[in-house]
Specification:
The chain is an alpha/beta fold and about 325 residues long. The protein folds into 2 domains: about 160 residues, Quinone Oxidoreductase, Chain A, domain 1 (Alpha-Beta Complex), CATH 3.90.180.10; about 120 residues, Rossmann fold (3-Layer(aba) Sandwich), CATH 3.40.50. About 25% of the residues lie in helices and about 25% in strands. It has 9 helices and 15 strands. The strands form 3 sheets. Strands 1, 2, 3, 6, 7, 14 and 15 form a 7-stranded mixed beta sheet that branches. The protein has a 6-stranded parallel beta sheet with strand order 10-9-8-11-12-13, sandwiched between helices. Helix 7 links the parallel strand 11 and strand 12. It binds zinc ion (ZN) (2 copies). The site of one zinc ion has 5 residues, from loops.
């Protein structure tokens, strides 16, 4: 539970007894088994993102078992395993919801931000915002799919990359290492741009066709590219390797300023776009694909009471793969 935002080294999260939430109509209660630790949680805890609710329980990569049903719940039975992601609810009424863009809903609520999330033992959610988890994942390995995985999948979809085309990935962390596994299945050639030798090695192992630095010009023109690193200067570098009509997708909640661009880099109908949040359709499609491939995730486990430690290590980039809280 977070009662006051502070730098993570001051251990802002406290372990408290809170009453078990009771599901009302259309809501299910979930006994949480695992919750992934995401950079957004760090922004929340340290107060970089202004919080609409306080105190709050962070966490939005949640895997657990349905243990109580509110009235008129038909989708799941008690004992079934489900996941909850960042999108906690959308209004269904605003113009974006009506356009099928509930990720841009003006009244959206987010898990661990407007309502208590997964750094705890129980949570409630509307049954139509919980997703079945494919059987071939453990609770811990499924958790990172629910944020890094789904948002990576949305970026991949919006990049409009087609089988056999060339895709660039700038940065190679939690999201990118999932995206490359989807691209491989489609027969795309993937070009990875990252400084970290550890990440380069990981990219090669996962089948990257070429690995280099973000300032390198790619040996082949890219049909699409996705930027995962929150550094604005990469936008200009990425455009240099993008082919005519190419799409550049930015997968980052925050990004430093984008430097001045020569119009020549955008000429020939190149496009730049951001990705914000996810829809339920993204989540459901992605989880099915993840189960079929099956996507491999690398995780390091922590106890719930060590959530501060997990966040601090993540801040210092000392965790390989994704940090996950195991909730007993
Ligand atoms: Zn996240
Ligand atoms: Zn809406």
């Amino acid at each position: 539970m977070l009662e006051e935002c502070k730098s993570i080294d001051q251990k802002p999260l406290k372990l408290l007894e809170i009453p078990e939430p009771v599901p009302v109509r259309n809501e299910i209660r979930i006994k949480i088994k695992a919750c992934g630790v995401c950079h957004t949680d760090l922004h929340t805890v340290e107060g970089e993102l202004p919080l609409p609710k306080m105190p709050i329980v962070p966490g939005h990569e949640i895997v657990g078992i349905v243990d109580e049903l509110g009235e008129e719940c038909h989708r799941y039975k008690k004992g079934e395993r489900v996941g909850v992601a960042w999108l906690y609810s959308s209004c269904g009424l605003c113009k974006f919801c009506k356009m099928g863009l509930e990720n841009l809903c003006e009244n959206a609520k987010f898990t661990g931000f407007h309502v208590n999330g997964g750094y705890e033992e129980y949570m409630i959610v509307r049954e139509d915002y919980a997703y079945p988890i494919p059987d071939n994942f453990s609770d811990e390995n499924a958790a990172p799919l629910l944020c890094a995985g789904i948002i990576g999948y949305r970026s991949f979809r919006l990049s409009n990359i087609k089988p056999g085309q060339k895709l660039g990935l700038f940065g190679f962390g939690a999201s990118a290492h999932i995206v490359i596994q989807i691209a491989n299945v489609l027969g795309c050639d993937v070009y990875v741009f990252t400084r970290s030798e550890k990440h380069r090695e990981h990219a090669r192992k996962l089948g990257a066709k070429w690995v280099g630095d973000a300032r390198d010009i790619c040996p082949e023109k890219l049909d699409s590219a996705i930027i995962f690193a929150p550094a604005g200067w990469i936008v200009r570098e990425a455009l240099k390797s993008l082919d005519r009509a190419g799409i550049l997708v930015i997968n980052a909640i925050h990004m430093s300023s984008i430097p001045e661009l020569s119009y020549n880099l955008l000429w020939h109908e190149r496009k730049i776009m951001s990705v914000a949040n996810v829809t339920r359709e993204d989540a459901e499609q992605f989880l099915k694909i993840a189960g079929r491939i099956p996507i491999e995730t690398e995780v390091r486990l922590f106890k719930l009471e060590d959530a501060n430690v997990a966040l601090e290590l993540m801040k210092k980039s000392e965790i390989e793969g994704a940090a996950v809280l195991r909730i007993e």
